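Single-chain item
Fold in token form
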Amino acid sequence: MSTIACIGSGNMGFALMNSQKNKTDNSGKKTEIYITDADKEKAQTAAILLNAKVLSSNIEAAQKSDIVFLAVKPQILSEVLAEIAPIIKKRYSTDSAPVLVSMAAGWSTGRIQTTIEEKIPVVRIMPNTPSLIGKGMIAMSASPEVTADKITELEIFLGCAGKVDIIEEQFLDAVTGLSGSGPAFVYMFIDALADGGVKAGLSREKALCYAIQTVFGAAAMVQETGKQPEELINMVTSPGGTTLAGLAALKDNAFGNTVIKAVEAAWKRSIELGK
């Protein structure tokens, strides 16, 4: 079992590390996790919740770990990479370089290698916030330097936080716009669905309860029946009925096109962050 370090203890870093809390390998050995963060108090709080150890610096994380998660914002990743580059290059020269796992939107594996100035093993992932409860969608792409056994190990590690899909790196910006940002779009839809229930006379509490279960159940129907969304829409819709009236209102107000534009805007912003 590799030693894991997470640079950054924000929502996504915490979510992925939390999925490993108290996990053990086949020999019963617990996964060892290290945490670093510019906010020392935040790192200490996360470490307590994760049964992890706080390290004094990012350099120490790069020294001690087999896999280093880069859970920092894209805007400061270059600063972090510059800080750890000397120790990464030193370990690379002795064939012991750690695998860097980045979740920074827009940063390609090649750009990370160029910043480090070595062809080190780099994995790029795009998780989403449902990973906090083990229901995430996590896309993963690896540079050629990452060995097959490390890819398998990461699949198992990340699989505790949700569904893992290995995808070509060229599609990761699209994934960022869809599943990375997508939960926020769904939360907005749930909120609006509940507002509609309130407008129709339900209490806010009741309306939110019905909206949540409706979205949860509808997603499960798509997943478990294997039917296309259009086919499931037809199952709900009766001629001249209530659903048809509601669908007409959605179409009149460009609901579908608005959602497409939201994903497109997030996708384009991910590309911009990589420049």
The first helix runs from residue 11 to 18. The chain has a mean pLDDT of 93. The radius of gyration is 22 Å.
